[in-house]
Amino acid sequence: MSEPSAAPRAAEPHAVDPRTVDPRVTDVVLALAMALVVAVVIAADPDAVRHAGPGAYLFAVGFGALVLLRRRAPRTMLVLTVLGVFAYYALQFAPIGTALPAVAAIYSAAELRRTGWAVGAGATLVGVATYYRTVGNTPEEALAPYELVTDVALVAAAIALGVAVRLSGRRAGTRRGPRSSGCRRSACASPGTCTTSSGTTCR
Known about the structure:
Layout: H1 23-43, H2 48-51, H3 54-67, H4 74-90, H5 103-111, H6 115-135, H7 145-176, E1 194-195, E2 201-202
Antiparallel strand pairs: 1-2
Helix pairs in contact: 1-3, 3-4, 4-5, 4-6, 5-6, 5-7, 6-7
């Protein structure tokens, strides 16, 4: 008399790569870094007493908070950040650079396949800042060549980094593709050929 067949083995849980970082953690860290960098630049202004009131630091927090939207609404985040930069300078707070507050937003847009939006936002920021500093009547509004070069470099670096991260992730996903069939040695009870629960043949 043959023995009853063994109960089907429960499906093994999907293995999680310990090197994988939760995207939400990355977003929070990036948001905190953005807010901290802008706040430090505001505090470093030589005339911080006159230019850096509580409102300026609220803008720093706002620029960081917008980064949390980067995966759900990258274009909305980018537009709000650009408008936030314009509003910040309209209120005559401490200078923080034109591109610096938008670096995280531009990077995120480029990383999330919104490269055209990232280029447009960067060009808008640099173009508007250049125009107003060229026609400005006060020493603070005068265009400093190194500031223009810095803004252009920050925008270009943010876009390049975002595109590079996206392409790197795509290549990594392609390399992992052949292994996604669920064919593991542990699924075979004995050496040789066997078939997993998903119907995949393993050797």
